[in-house]
Amino acid sequence: MQAGWTGLFAVEHDVNAFQTLHDNLIIGTRYKFAWPTWLPKSPLSATDVLRDYRNNLTALEGCVDMLVGGPPCQGFSSAGRRDPSDPRNKLIDMYLEFVSLIKPRIVLIENVRGITLDFDGNSEIAGKINYANQIISSLSSDYTVSSQMIDASMFGVPQKRHRFFIIAIRSDLVMDLAPPPFETLERIRHSFIRSKGISAVPVFAKDAISDLEIKRNGKLPSRDNAGFEEIAYGSPLTSYQRLMNRGTKGLLSDTRLARHRVEIANRFGKIIDICHSGGRLNVSLSPEMRASFGLRKCAIRVLDPDRPSPTITSMPDDLIHYCEPRTLTVRENARLQSFPDWFEFKGKYTSGGDRRRKEVPRFTQVANAVPPLLAEAIGVALLGYINQPVAAPNLSPTQTVSRKTLGTQEAPV
């Protein structure tokens, strides 16, 4: 939307994530979906939409410029079990069913690197499945398909986040002289970064979140949850922070602090000191260090202030702040993902146990997202591949689907 596209609607089944979508992009004051009257503004799964609104989707054929989405990554990610029988992997078929019904001009898909790897192990079907190849093969009959791994930090995102993208442009739109989409993306990259006021990449973690340090701002009682505290925000310090804070006034949302016990905070302080003195920042703690502190968790690391952050995850205790003995807030994670400060996350902060497979709380919403700066750059690059505006059925007479996108979220459905 920041690149100039207009959203038609989005599919999101989780109550928490849909509330975030609703408050920011359905009733929000900055950007709004042109939501059709036939689709409820409520949490729905891909299965629900395909079953109950198939005729409405078919009526959109030829009227949607781009279908954007990311099938759930949990079954593919190398950070998980990489189970070829994970039912969430089947949602790729539903995504492709949306493509076949709507026939958008462009299809944009994002996922983790694991989707490009063959499954292996003891399963009877192991070694025979490569979901990226399946998607590309399925699209290739009607689309010219390109794919590439992208490092988000090269687009001003203060995070070393490598993700796999597929861009499929309908074959009747591809001109012989038009450069491939990823070439276009690289060609506009420097001018895009300059247009955002970012002087150089990569942007470091401290450049992104130093204005949120407690020692600078102090603390207040949390506005979200009784018994918690939050950061009392002052003002931005760096060009990146000013970019994220543009149009936002007063206290920021999502700055609730974790309630660390005294012994935990002391432990974090010692870990920070040891990592700074030993140069082990942005990398997982060694087995010896974990053992010395009685830690079982393997992924915990201390954020390096002078490098981009490692990939943000849905686990709030994966990262320790670079100079304060605590984990990061939702807002700090959102800054490292390049979410603007006006974008507020809704619902639970986190979930535990079996609920983690079923719920999408705030930390997970941030972690599962495509960084908005990278998404905007891709949106800018793809505008040139779209033909003239066309009228869309089932919308009000004043609405069109010029540069219209239909989005699906990465959360499990």
Folded structure, characterized:
By secondary structure, the chain is α/β, with parallel strands linked by helices. The chain folds into 2 domains: 6-200 and 368-408, Rossmann fold (3-Layer(aba) Sandwich); 205-348, Alpha-Beta Complex (DNA Methylase, Chain A, domain 2), CATH 3.90.120. The chain contains 14 helices and 10 strands. The strands form 3 sheets. A 6-stranded mixed β-sheet has the order 1-10-2-3-5-4, with helices on one face. It has a two-stranded antiparallel ribbon with strand order 6-7. A two-stranded parallel sheet has the order 8-9. α6 (181-195) crosses α14 and α12 (330-337) packs parallel to α13 (362-368). It is globular and about 60 Å long.
Which structural traits does this protein have?
single chain; alpha/beta; Rossmann fold; DNA Methylase, Chain A, domain 2; two-stranded antiparallel sheet; 14 helices; 12% strand
How many strand elements? 10
Give, in order, the helices and strands.
EHHHEHEHEEHHHEEHHHEEHHHE
Q: Return the domain count.
A: 2
Q: What proportion of the residues is helical, as a percent range?
A: 25-40%
Biggest sheet features = 6 strands, mixed
CATH topology of the largest domain, which one? Rossmann fold
What is the number of helical segments per DSSP (H or I, 4+ residues)? 14
* The first-level CATH class name of the largest domain: Alpha Beta
Radius of gyration: 22 Å
Give, in spatial order, the strands making up the sheet with the most strands: 1-10-2-3-5-4
Instruction: Give the CATH H-level superfamily of the largest domain.
Output: Vaccinia Virus protein VP39
Residue windows where pLDDT falls under 50 for at least 5 positions = 121-126, 388-402, 409-413
Q: What is the CA-CA span between the terminal residues?
A: 24 Å
CATH architectural group of the largest domain:
3-Layer(aba) Sandwich
Class from helix and strand fractions:
alpha/beta
In round numbers, the mean pLDDT is: 87
